[in-house]
Amino acid sequence: MSNDFEKELKIIKDSKWIGKNLIVKEIIESTQTEAHILAKKGSEHGTIIIADEQTDGRGRIGRKWVSGKGKGVWLSIILRPSFSIEHASFITLFTSIVLNKVIKNTYNIDCKIKWPNDIYIGNKKCSGILTELNTELKEINYLIIGVGINTHKSIYPKELKNKVISLEECLDYAPNRILLINNFLKQFEIDFDLFNKCSFTAFYEEYLCKMYGIEKEIRINGKLTGRVKGINKSGHLLVETSDGEIISIASGEIEFQ
Ligand code: BTN
Hints:
alpha+beta
């Protein structure tokens, strides 16, 4: 990533608070790890860390996130919200809606959200979100949202090959990451203000409409099976078990059968 990348990001952006402090790195261990370091030093609300390559990109539940040079958007956002820890649990669901909307508006690609926050194109994942909270005396000190979007074709380990997709594979060209980053950040800023005021209620219906796998059979945490029915107002997954009971799942890994 050349200095031009940084310059362009600064020129295109026209925001109120997001990315006013923008850090662009050619190579980094993980933007998420760097964001924690910066947040602890007092970096402001809306600080963005973007890298062209991550050597130790982190995914949810301790997984690695493949983040090759120039192959995607790898960024973290530092937030210092005034809302409660309970409200913070909705931020990942909220971010997945923003991402879904931006991919649709920028590339006309219809993607879906696999609960809680994976972005799917067809039956493959193109983007993931990792949210990490730092709290003190039951208050949020800071919150970091890590976003990874596979924009360009890449080489994946065998076990991921049939599960992952890039935007380039859906378009007949390689997408412009600067455009995508700017569209995402602008939309995030606009929608975050609403999220702040109205909570997830304002986005609940939209999430339901965009959900991947409604009525499909799933396995939860490798054990329980059932059929996806949607989410409830708390953002928990609703599943119908084989005896017709509707149960809600607050967290966990779901696999489609
Ligand atoms: C997941 O689906 O498991 C979440 C993946 C999150 C990846 C992003 S890339 C930018 C940021 N830095 C990281 O190390 N991880 C997140």
